[in-house]
Amino acid sequence: MEIWINYACSKCRGALSLLDAEGADYTVRRYLEDVPSTEEIRAVLDRLGLEPWDITRTQEAEAEELGVGEWPRDAGARERWITALAGHPKLIQRPIITAQDGSAVVARTDEAVRDALGR
């Protein structure tokens, strides 16, 4: 199990606390420093069953500068979104947990963290 986190994020710290309380075995990835490649983002999206716009933090200043709010949300624009996430990792929703069964969850709630633990 791996968790993509930003330690400045309270949701990330809460997810880590819950994982620790449950005695989970996991690896931390500080994705702002260890930036995921486009291939890794595609793989996580497949595991999540989501599209890149579903995990984009559109309210971030970088998102506004890029104008992502105006980008199409369709198959033709998918790679543009993925490239933006790889180039601007702050835009990636957090935390993301990759579960042992090959799935992943955006773990912004305790329920989502527990869901990942049960997989």
Q: What can you tell me about this protein's structure?
A:
The radius of gyration is 14 Å and the shape is globular. A four-stranded mixed sheet has the order 2-1-3-4, sandwiched between helices. The chain is α+β, with helices and mostly antiparallel strands and about 120 residues long. The longest helix is centred in the first third of the chain and has 12 residues, at about 10-20. The mean pLDDT is about 95. Helix 1 packs across helix 5. The chain has helices at about 10-20, 40-50, 60-65, 80-85, 110-115, and strands spanning about 1-5, 25-30, 95-100, 105. Strand 1 (about 1-5), helix 1 (about 10-20) and strand 2 form a beta-alpha-beta unit.
Tell me the overall shape.
globular
Backbone CA Rg = 14 Å
User: In which order are the strands of the major sheet placed?
Assistant: 2-1-3-4
Quaternary status of these chains? single chain
Percentage of residues in DSSP E strands = 5-15%
Q: What percent of residues adopt helix (DSSP H or I)? A: 25-40%
Order of helices and strands: EHEHHHEEH
What is the typical, i.e. mean, pLDDT? 96
Low-confidence stretches: none
Number of DSSP strand runs: 4
Terminal Cα span? 10 Å
The helix count comes to 5
Structural class: alpha+beta
Biggest beta-sheet profile:
4 strands, mixed
